[in-house]
Every structure is written in C-alpha cells, then in structure tokens.
C-alpha cells in the first residue's frame, strides 16, 4: 500500500481491544497489537518515510495507579497482556523514531464510547435492560474517564496538527473521574428502566479500579 501510494499521515486504528480475550488468546493479541504495528512502521520506513504515523494506544498501559490524575510521564504498570502489548507498540514507535527518524505519535485512549460500539459498559447495560435485574462486575465504586467518540476524533485531529512527532505520548480523555454506579444510574434513568442493580463485588481480571486523566 505504501509503495503504491504516498501518504501524509497514517492513523492506525486497527488491532484487538479486548482485555479479557487478551488473557485467553495472548498470541492473537500480540499479533494484532504489536506485530501489525511493526509491519506498518517497517512499510513506512521502506516505502514512505515522510509519512507521519499515529498509533492508538490505551490507558491500559497504566494499570492500577494510585497517582491521579494520570500524567503521560507516569510509570506504566500494565495488568493485562493487552496493556503490555500496547506499551510494546509504543516502544516500537519510539524505536523507529530514534533509529530511523520516522515521525510517530502514540495516543493513549481512555474509555471511549459512542454510537456503534457493541461492547463495554453502555452496550452491556443496554442489552441487560430488557430484564428486571442487571448484574455488573465490581462494586460500582470504580471510576473511569469516559471520552465521547466525536471528542476523541477532535483530539486525534489536534495531534495530527500539533504533535512534535518525536514518539511523544498523549493522553486522550475528558479529564473527569466518573464513578461507575453514577454512570449506571444516569443510563438507566434515561432508559426509564426500573429494576434491581446487583454488583458482584469482584473485578474482572485485568480491569483497573481507578482510572482518571
């Protein structure tokens, strides 16, 4: 592709984005989130070295951090294969920038949501709202930083315009810590759903407790 057509910017939105599946199928997750990134970067290096490259990383690289709000220079401590693999992809960006002078920029995406997303909390709530009882993982006191897809698109656009392209890490979030129980209450109210919410009091493997940019 890069040999046939020169590009100004490549924004890589491909790859796996399933923490639970990364535990079950770590090889598949590694292939999609690390090997594919290496192949794209190598193709750019060989055929289109002027192309700027943005890789969508994840806040999963931070793991369970006690330091809030999360800053880009904080120590990463992933707690899932998915988080580790996203960090490896960031390291690849840095490698190709430092060794081959490619222009790269990894973006760490927090909890993105919006129309068409058929997974994660909002989709899970929507599916379960057909019944009178909803059971959710955790305690409800966990927090996330939710970013609407159109705001994320704007952040990607800003990165394209203003990144220094030295493999600089940029957090993409809205900057507000939101408790899961509060999100659930708002969502069910908007659906005019009246039923019982039950929390398992057990977090899924790989899910952080607090996450705030």
Task: Walk across the major sheet and give the strand order.
Answer: 1-2-3-8
CATH topology: Rossmann fold
Q: Could you estimate the helical fraction of the residues in percent? A: 25-40%
Question: What is the alpha-carbon Rg in Å?
Answer: 19 Å
Description:
The protein is of the alpha/beta class and 213 residues long. It has a single domain (9-199), classed as NAD(P)-binding Rossmann-like Domain (Rossmann fold). Helix content is 38%, strand content 18%. It is built from six helices and ten strands. Strands 1-2-3-8 form a four-stranded parallel beta sheet, sandwiched between helices. A two-stranded parallel sheet has the order 4-7. Strands 5-10 form a two-stranded parallel ribbon. Strand 2, helix 3 (81-100) and strand 3 form a beta-alpha-beta unit. Helix 2 runs parallel beside helix 3 (81-100). The longest helix is centred in the N-terminal third of the chain and has 22 residues, at 26-47. The protein is elongated.
Please outline what is shown here:
It is built from six helices and ten strands, in the order E-H-H-E-H-E-E-H-E-E-E-H-E-E-H-E. It has 213 residues and is of the alpha/beta class. Helix 2 packs parallel to helix 3.
